[in-house]
């Protein structure tokens, strides 16, 4: 990990745990695939998925993220200049084989998941020992959602993942136009106050750090840092609802402001509901926003 050092602390003394790379690429792939939802917020679908004799390739991992976006994950043990181009090659195949992917989702996750696949935001996640400055530049030149994730093993039982770069994909013009249309329609019904409040929340969440991607869904807007850390629902008449990836047990819940919704159905992801009615509520919630961002 870049600049990160890890130590065992025992009886007042510390011993450094040296970082290392996996012996073979397959070790990283196996570890991630077995824990994909925990590590990446992605539901695992398939490993070494063949793209047919015409295309002649095998996708390392296929998955579906929290917002329904198709995900391709490619792994490299160390540094490999071809990992991004290889992933984009498979991403192009995926966009041409939507029905095949939806059939896979239906078989593994059910009819509902297959009907909600978000084709406007397919993602490529590259997990490698490291990346070059050329890789970091390249992801910003492509009109795709790409995450570069550096891994390190520490000893025999610790895994570190670091999001090196995270870039949201294309269709920005279409998304902007849709947001404006939704905002205008909402303004006609709700007035300016709730829209201004939603704009303030949007600004705060996007400003928490680099690499925050915004994903538009029908019933919520997700803020993503590799995985979702906040979901903002459309304004209600007198309040906004934001769902965060914060354990409600770690929060002093305040009636009318924060609520434990674990086990309750709601749009978006996260077990902590935050109710916002005024700009002061947005200020009160900023510590919770930062905690959820850090957890992601």
Characterize the structure shown.
With 296 residues, the protein is α+β, with helices and mostly antiparallel strands. It is 37% helix and 30% strand. The strands form 3 sheets. Strands 3, 4, 5, 6, 7, 8 and 9 form a 7-stranded mixed β-sheet that branches. A hairpin with a 7-residue loop joins strand 12 and strand 13. The radius of gyration is 20 Å and the shape is globular.
Contiguous low-pLDDT stretches (5 residues minimum) are 171-177
Helix content estimate: 25-40%
Q: Major beta sheet, specifics?
A: 7 strands, mixed
**Coarse shape:** globular
What's the average pLDDT? 90
Oligomeric state of shown chains: single chain
Number of helices: 10
Number of strands: 15
Q: Please indicate the percent range of residues in DSSP E strands (runs of 2 or more).
A: 25-35%
Determine the structural class based on helices, strands and strand pairing: alpha+beta
Question: Alpha-carbon distance between the termini?
Answer: 17 Å
Compressed to H and E, one letter per element, the order equals: EEEHHEHEEHHHEHEEHHEEEEEEH
As a whole number of angstroms, the C-alpha radius of gyration is: 20 Å
Show the helix and strand layout.
Elements: E1 6-10, E2 13-17, E3 19-20, H1 25-34, H2 36-40, E4 42-50, H3 52-55, E5 58-65, E6 70-76, H4 83-95, H5 98-109, H6 111-115, E7 123-128, H7 133-141, E8 145-154, E9 158-167, H8 172-190, H9 192-206, E10 213-216, E11 221-225, E12 227-232, E13 240-244, E14 258-260, E15 272-276, H10 279-295
Parallel strand pairs: 6-7, 7-8
Antiparallel strand pairs: 1-2, 3-8, 4-5, 5-6, 8-9, 10-11, 11-12, 12-13, 13-15, 14-15
Helix pairs in contact: 8-9, 9-10
